[in-house]
Amino acid sequence: MTFPIQAILFDLDDTLLGNDIDTFMRRYFALLSEYARPQVDEATFLPHLIQATQTAIRNTDPTRTNAEVFWAAFEGLTGGRRADLEPFFRRFYETEFARLQPSTVLRPAAAGLVRAAFDRGLHVVIATNPLFPLAAIEQRLAWAGVPVDTYDYALVTAYENMHAAKPQPAYYREILSVISCEPGRALMVGDDWRNDIAPAAEVGLFTYWIAPVDAEPPDTRLLSGQGSLDALAELVGGGWLERLRPPAA
Question: Which of 5, 184, 211, 230 has CB atoms 3.0–4.6 Å from 109's, for a disulfide?
Fold first, then answer.
């Protein structure tokens, strides 16, 4: 059987993994600041980190990864050197980041849904905002029950391998280019309208919004479906993916 779509892109936080991102980021910043205190100026560390991250979000230069943009901005703000600071922060992800796992919730439907996508021969992409190092994203995938050593993802977006971030449409175009997929043959699944749904739809992807069925979407024309992760798993099991069709030319 030939499936009408070739790829599924899954957001991670509050999609595959239960994770209120505002709460998580507060705890992440507190933990990172505690770890970095002996090495950095505590008064300016977080403002500089956030400012450098915002610079990376605005990046769409196809010749510079998000990591390169972030570190250039961070070096300029702090006077530090990436060669000295990056190993220090890499150890944070190796030794401290796991302390954030209790802030997240395993969603049992995630593993079954990812497996169903693989069983259909689809390219499966973890389309999380690529502002974290891959090490941090791989840990969160393990917390979600869909680890990289179990699932052979076509792509896991991270700040090392992407040249744009959400909500830039360029982020979705880059993913499609990497996996050699046309927009009308891919489905984006995510909970954040601004980051996941609107820019993916702008590029031409099908979209499934992880939101209560009675939530009012800003624009119904951008949606292919809406509901919980469990509801999407039931749809996939019932052949919904096979019924998706590209819009008429």
Answer: 230
